[in-house]
Amino acid sequence: MEAIKNSLVEGAILWLAQTILESLFISGKLAEWIRQVGLAEAIEKLRTEIERIETVVAAVKGRAAGNKPLARSLARLRELMYDADDLVDELDYFRLQQQVEGGSTACANNECSANNEPEGMDLDVAELSVVGTSDNPNILSTSKKRKNRCTYWDHFSEKRDDKGNISGAICRCCHALIKCGGNTGTNGLKKHLRNGKCLGTRPKGDRPPTATRKRIGTDEALTPHISQHGNLYHWNKTDSCKRIHQIILELQGLRGTVIELLKDSVAPSDQYQSNTSDTRLRTTSLVPQKVYGRDKKDRIIRALTVAESDVVAVLPIVGIAGVGKTALAQLVYNDPKVESQFDRIWVCISYNFDEVRLTRDMLDLFTQGTKEGSPKIQYKHEAISGLGKLQEILEAHMQCHSKRLLLVLDDVWHNLDDCRWRRLLLPLQSSREKEISVAQRIGTEETIKLGALREDDFWSLYKSFALRDDNYEGHPSLNKIGQEIYKKLKGNPLAAETAGKILRERLNIEPWTRILKNEDWKSLQLVGGIMAALKLSYDQLPYNLQQCFLYSTIFPNNYEFRDKDLVRTWISLGFVTCTNSSKKLEEMGHDYLTNLMNLGFFEQVERTKPTRHKTFYVICGIMHDFGRN
Fold first, then answer.
1. Where in the numbering of this chain does the BED-type domain appear (predicted)?
2. If one looks up domain 545-628 in CATH, what number appears?
3. Which of 441, 472, 546, 564 is most buried, by the most CB atoms less than 10 A from its CB?
4. What share of the chain is helix, strand, coil (3-state, %, to 5)?
C-alpha cells in the first residue's frame, strides 16, 4: 500500500496548496482584512512560498515510491501545509469574529513583516484573555514567565528532581505523571491530553482542540496557541507573525530538500508512469481461449454490422478495472464476421489523449502488410510530427481501402469532447461523410456496461484459474474453501485470475486456508493483479475525488447511500470545493458523485419502497475492498 500512501500525500499537498491560495485570493474579504491588520507582507511571502511548493510537488509524479527519504520529506511537507491551512482558517475565523462583534482593526498600523525575524526577538508572548472557571482557573492560560512554551504545559504541574530540574509533568485533571524535560515532551503531553481516560475526567470546555475537518485521519490537533474557554477566542498578532515566519522557513527548507532528492532520483517521472501501466494487456492477438458469461459480444457485432455505412458508430464499453472490457473488445475484434467486413485498427490511449501519437499509431498499423505502390511507399510518416500532415497521409491510406473501418480505442480514461473526436476521426471519413453534420456523423449507441459475472459463470472461471479445470469436482475440502474465497472476489474476472494464480501453486488445504484468512490476492505487489489495476483507476482521480471515495468506504460493504446525504457529508468535511462561481456546493458535490459513478467507483441501485421508488448509490463490488485496504 506504500504507492497509494505516497500518491495520497502528493495529492493532499497539491489540494491544500489550491485551498490556501483560493482562501488568500487577493480580492477576497480575508485578503482585505489581512491588509487592514498589517499582515499583508507576511501573508504575501507565505502565498509565494506555497506557489513554489505547488510547482515542486507537481514534478514529483510518483517518484516517492521506493524512495524513503523523499517520501518522508513529502509527509513532513504535507503536515506543514496543514499547519498553513489551519493558520489561514484561524485568521478567517478572527475576521468573522471581528465582523460580528464590530471590533476595530487596532493593529493596522503595526505592520508585521516576515523579514522581522520574530523567532529572534526577545518578546514575551502576550497573555491570552480567557474566561476562567472557579475549579480550574489555570487551564489554557499563558504566563509571561514561560517564554514560547507550548500551552499544552498549562494543563500540567511541574515535577522537579533533587537538582531542581524538571523531570516530569503531573496532569492537573487525572494526576497522571508524564516523564519529560522542561523544554521537551510536547508530543507526550499532547497524547496524554487526548487519551480517553484523561478526557473523561475533564468537562468539555477544558478539553484540548480536536483535529480540523481537513486533517481527517491524522493525529494532529489545532495549533495550541488558540485557546477556547467559555466560547471566547482572542487573537494574538505577534504570535500569528511568528507562526507565519516559522512556517515559511520550514517550507523553504523542505522545498530545497525535495528538489535535491528529485535531482538524485534516477527514474524520470514518465518512466514511473509507464512502469505502472505497462503490465496491462495492450494487444489484440492474445484472445482468451474460453470466455465466460459475456453474451454481449453478439449484440456488439450485430450493432456494428447493421449500422449505416455513412455513420461513425460509437459503442462505449464501460466498467471498473478488471471486469473484462478489453477481453470483450478482443473477442469482437477477432470475430471472423468482423474481420471479413472491416479493416481494423487497435489503439491504446491510456492516460494521455494525444491526437498526434494516436494518428501515428494508426498509420503504423495501417501500413503493415501493404502492397507495393501503396501510400506506404509514397509517403513516409516516421519523421513527421505535425498533425495536419499525418492526417493527410492517413486519409490517403483510407482512399485505398474499400472496407469499413473498425477503430478500437482501448484503455480510455477520460471523456472526450466532440471537438477532439472530430479532429481524430476527420481523416477516417470519406468525402461524402464529411458533408454530414457532426450530430449525424457520430451516432453513439447505448452504453455497454459490464458488471460482475453471474454466479455460475464466475464459479467456472474461478475454477479454471485455481484448479486448471472449470469442471473440477474433486477434493471436497478444496471446493469448500474455494467457494469461500470466490465469494470475496465480487464476480470480478481479474480478481478471480489473481486469486487463482496464487491458489493453483499449492493444491492442498493448509495453504488455501491461510490464503483465505490473509486475503493474499489483495496485495498491490502482485504484478498485473486486481489491486494494482484498481490503483491505476484510483490514481487518475483528482485528490478531492480520492477523498470522497475513501471516506465513503468506511461504511459497510453494499451500504446504500442517498445522494443528498452523501453530498452533504462531503461538503461538511471540506472535500467539495467550488471552482465555478455560478455553481453551489451542492451542485459541485453532485458532479463529484456523477464522476465517481461514470468512472466505476459507484453504481446506482433502484429500490421500490412501500411509498415510492428510490435511487441509491453503492460502491462497486471489489472497489470497496480496495478502499478499505
1. 147-195
2. 1.10.10.10
3. 546
4. 50, 10, 40
